[in-house]
Amino acid sequence: MSNNNEWMHRDVDQLFHEGRWNEELLRTVFPKNVVKHILNDIERFHDSEERDNPRWMLNNSGKFSVKSARDITRTPGVENDSFAKMWEKGVPFKVSFFFWRLAMKRVPIGKVLARFETEEEMIKDTVYKWWNATCSAKLRPLFNAIPGLILWQIWKRRNRIRHGDNMNVQGMMMEVNMNLHMLAVFRYPWQRNIPEDWPNLVHFFEGYKPILVPKVIHWKPPIEGTYKCNSNGASKGNPGQSVSGFCIRDWKGEFIFATTYDLGIRTSLEAETSAMEKGLNYCVTHNLLPVFIEMDSLVLTKILNGVWEVPWSIKIQIQKIEFLRNNREVAVLHTLKEGNKVADYFTNFILSFAGTENKTFQSIQDVRKEGKSLLIMDANQIPNIRINKMQNKLYGL
């Protein structure tokens, strides 16, 4: 933290006593929740040439967005699944907007329905039955779009007739088919030879199968004389109840130390960062260096390696990590989830066995059978298999 106002510096300094936050004074100045945040998350600042920057605290990026501002001004409600289907991605806005207006009774069609002895509820039931019809995952966006596209054509025909023009049923069907084909091409641009008529379109996507590509992944021990710390964080809800943990092993794959702890309500990125920081701090404190810090969070890996900007929500933790890394042999690596199963096991230990109590493992004898099996597999280079679903670009050729 830096500030050009010297009085402001001295004012903040008054909140410290013997190098620590003066908790008693903090409680007389700030509300309880602010005091808790300061004591838990903010260490004493140091003079810095870096200028202070404003942060928009309603999103993780720290940058203002109209959406986040709108979210705090509107009353949150339960998401309407039917409305979500009306606004299918790729459907022209005018079609979705018309469909929404129709559902909200903003289109004057009451007299028309009465003339044809058609009840409004009958149309709703027909649409809902169509939306709930069983279909493949690739067909679902098309199924969601069809009622709106058909009603749009009926509305266009009605308007043309009112203005002295006409539109036959065959032409309406052709336009619906054409719009469905365009939607399929928009949603699946990598797919070739998509049929233009509805029956063949259904047959085409129902027969589609992705390409399954297996990949062998295993934990790689560090080079001789070094250590590896695998860290992991998890959040149920993001933000939600969060846990973090790490496991340290030597170049032979032998267990040294592991811990898992509850974080309360945090985001998944905050949990991942906390795990990495505490793991690195343990390695530095116990002189387990050089060390490779390995995690399955690609986002955090890119942040620590300077590729991506640091979000405001983890700024303080990243500063702690950089301080620990300074002039020390510390490398940050990324692995896939299958290569980080031991850290994942310790991270979820609280949720699986220990409730909300933090747990420390000083030796492999403290580890349960399931964890020992994972440690032995890693030490013996027994691989895990990852199955990736790839787009089948050759399907239909």
UniProtKB/TrEMBL annotation:
CDD domains with a match to the protein in the record: RNase_H_like
Entry-linked Pfam families: RVT_3, zf-RVT
Residues of the Reverse transcriptase zinc-binding domain: 64-119
Domain RNase H type-1: 230-348
InterPro entries: RNase_H-like, RNase_H-like_dom_plant, RNaseH-like_sf, RNaseH_domain, RNaseH_sf, RVT-Znf
One Gene Ontology term of the molecular function aspect: nucleic acid binding
Name the record gives this protein: RNase H type-1 domain-containing protein
